[in-house]
Amino acid sequence: PLHSTLASQDQMRVFETPPPGVTKIVVATNIAETSITIDDISYVVDTGRLKENRYDPTRKMESLVEDFGSQANLKQRRGRAGRVRCGVAIHLVSSGRFESLPAQQTPELHRTPLEHVLLRAKKLYPSRAAAAVLRDLPQPPTPLAIKAATNTLVSLGALERVLPANPPTQRVGGGKALCGVGSGAGSGASSGAGSSGERAGGVTDDGVERRVDITDGAAYTYEEFLEFYEGDARYWDMAKPAPRLTAPSKPPTAMAATASPVVDVDDDGAPPPELLTALGHHLASLPIDVRIGKLLILG
Length: 299
Prior knowledge:
Blueprint: H1 8-11, E1 43-46, E2 49-56, E3 61-68, H2 71-78, E4 88-91, H3 95-100, H4 115-124, H5 130-135, H6 143-156, E5 159-161, E6 169-172, E7 175-178, E8 203-204, E9 207-208, E10 211-213, E11 219-221, H7 222-227, H8 252-259, E12 274-276, H9 278-284, H10 290-298
Parallel strand pairs: 1-4
Antiparallel strand pairs: 2-3, 5-12, 6-7, 8-9, 10-11
Helix pairs in contact: 4-9, 9-10
């Protein structure tokens, strides 16, 4: 047998030359797709299947799934024969099945949890939204997966969201509403309205008011109101709904100064939508699940 959980000395046995009259058979997992060379292998019998980790961001569950590989997987496996001599590869799939397989395997970034990736992105690019960094990748993860990972990190305290001091205006329901959030403001600090008859919620002493009324008579929760700015990566990347959104305990500039030595301001002079906390810095360096990492650090 040859698989990744074998001890190194056991893995080396596949390179041993069998005695005369004995046929050597190596039963291998996906590890056979690596550039390993066993010089006396002449035949490859490929089942065409593999096991890979897949992650469901909705259920926040990771599972090991058996499925057919991609065309690239099968082509790579046939290369284990004929490395130093002529060889034969037999794939136990029909030509029709082979043609229906995807050309390439799904990128690992699309089938694994993104919490560690987001933390590393935030550590490398502190002045940018972590979600924006991932969206710039050649094959970015889905927005749902990014949101789920961001929400997990915020709930764990690894990331801290920052609300913009001067958010943009947005035309909503026929009227222009300006949603402003100040820090340390009392009930008198409220959002501005761009046209007559509009009323917007403001920051009270115990958090952010949850109701925002627009001229068309519709009432929105504060979280729904923030959704109108969700597409602007300069401000935040927030999932809906949130149970209750509270204003930061410190102004964004003060939070940036205490949380990170780097000036957290992007090219447009706006603060990023989240800051990496001290806990987040530690979790980014641990090669384990972020939830377990937090237990180890704080336990």
